[in-house]
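FORM 12-B: Structure-to-Sequence Request
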């Protein structure tokens, strides 16, 4: 029987590597982690695979984060409590992120309303060995938000991303990247008692910054509605701009103090529709624990 070797079957190793590793690290990783592995590291891995060597593409790294704090809805004049849990798994070429968050703003008077928000999101991305500046990503998400008039929104999104800037030094990190993709979602609109299926073109620009013990993150996402399967009567447009901003200070190795804001702007809706709010935003302050 002929002896099989990696060295004699380089073409097969290349095919297996390409199929098994459509590789990437997602720049949505937390600001204290380099989200863009150096191109030379990935190029070295690809070269060693082509030369018939077995390469382990990085040990898996797990990180947990628990955030507790207070949040405010300025447009409603209310204050409540928020919580978040995050689990990340990263290697040199892959990124997986589980994100669970929610808040409740209780009614303090008879005429007031209790506002609630909840989101469960899983995101996976793979950086390409053949083009280290490019990665693909997919997201699965469930969301409810009473201040946006949403009983339930289920989201499936997929697309591509590219690193526009990566700069790292001993106490400084800057990551800037762009994502584009297509989104399909199901939305149950509370005020209209409607079930709507929509399709969107999505683009997102994300910036991560670290300087010493200070970290910052901003995410600007535009989802433009391009198709819908809705009832015959009027339903509000779901085209929206979402903006997230976070500023944190690492008080200790495991404790981070955080301040942030989230804005949702449905800019194509008429401003005088009381059932479909055009603008909602949340402010929060809290502490993150990272065991």
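FORM 12-B RESPONSE
SEQUENCE OUT:
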């Amino acid at each position: 029987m002929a002896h099989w070797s990696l060295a004699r079957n380089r073409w097969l190793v290349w095919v297996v590597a390409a199929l098994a590793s459509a590789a990437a690290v997602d720049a949505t990783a937390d600001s204290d982690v380099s989200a863009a592995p150096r191109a030379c590291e990935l190029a070295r891995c690809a070269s060693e695979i082509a030369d018939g060597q077995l390469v382990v593409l990085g040990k898996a790294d797990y990180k947990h984060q628990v955030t507790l704090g207070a949040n405010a809805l300025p447009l409603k004049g209310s204050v409540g409590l928020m919580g978040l849990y995050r689990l990340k798994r990263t290697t040199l070429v892959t990124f997986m992120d589980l994100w669970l968050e929610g808040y409740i703003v209780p009614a303090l008077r008879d005429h007031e309303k209790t506002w609630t928000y909840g989101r469960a999101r899983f995101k996976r991305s793979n950086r390409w060995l053949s083009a280290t500046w490019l990665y693909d990503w997919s997201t699965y998400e469930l969301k409810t938000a009473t201040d946006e008039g949403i009983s339930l929104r289920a989201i499936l999104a997929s697309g591509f991303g590219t690193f526009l800037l990566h700069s790292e030094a001993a106490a400084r990190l800057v990551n800037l990247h762009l994502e584009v993709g297509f989104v399909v979602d199901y939305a149950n609109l509370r005020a209209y008692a409607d079930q709507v299926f929509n399709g969107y073109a999505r683009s997102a620009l994300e910036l991560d910054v670290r300087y010493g013990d200070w970290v910052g993150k901003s995410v600007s996402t535009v989802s433009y509605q391009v198709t819908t399967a809705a009832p015959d009567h009027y339903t509000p447009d779901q085209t929206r701009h979402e903006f997230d901003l976070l500023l944190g200070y690492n008080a200790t190795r495991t404790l981070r103090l955080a301040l942030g804001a989230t804005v949702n702007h449905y800019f194509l809706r008429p401003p005088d529709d009381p059932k479909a709010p055009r603008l909602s935003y949340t402010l929060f302050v809290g502490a993150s624990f990272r065991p």
